[in-house]
Amino acid sequence: MTNPDSLIFDMDGTLWDNVDSYVISWNKGLEINGYRSRVTRDDLLGLMGKEAHIMLNTVLPNASRAAQDELFDEVVRQYHLLVPSMKPHIYEGVYEGLEKLSEKYPLFLLSNCEKGGLVNFMKHTGTAHLFTDYMEHGENLKPKSFNMKLLKGRNNLQYPLYIGDTDSDSKASSDAGVPFVFVTYGFGKTNKYSYAFDSFPQLVEFFLNI
Q1: CATH architecture of 6-17+89-208
Q2: Residues 89-122: pLDDT tens digits?
Q3: What is the pLDDT of residues 15-31, one digit of tens each?
Q4: Which of 21, 163, 165, 170 could be disulfide-bonded to 190 (CB atoms 3.0-4.6 Å)?
């Protein structure tokens, strides 16, 4: 395989674990909108990387689209309120690793998160200066494969790799014609990848030396 000219990173399960914050935001949204049901960390772990409508169909399967949209708007609002005090777990080696990788490759972010989710990540971690561009599902509500192609096209990327942690990440990469790099420490499992790494430092060392 041709060596990459750029690296595109997923966020949740790849660079950080912020699921506990999402649980708080979802449960506050459910409470404010008058629902008795609540979600747990395990519930959301099984939905990480999914598009918003899939998450909503799982959490509120019998609700109307309008009711689901109303809930999600409130969940996003609660998350933004939580951002200043949230305490996500940044995976080992991410800060230093991104710094080193940015000296060799243009770096990008691509996630199925809400609009502003990647911006919050970059602000919280102080890494905005390391990324050339990013794309969020919330910006256009398009599938990850579509946004991967969009990111690739508007930045004239010839040989990008997508780095993620779920089988849906692998499928999106395949649909976009982009080789997939699997990080095994994240939230999901897959057996379809070009490379796999058990830690972020291991990934960094490999791509710095190819």
Answers
A1: 3-Layer(aba) Sandwich (3.40)
A2: 999 999 999 999 999 999 999 999 999 999 999 9
A3: 999 999 999 999 999 99
A4: 170
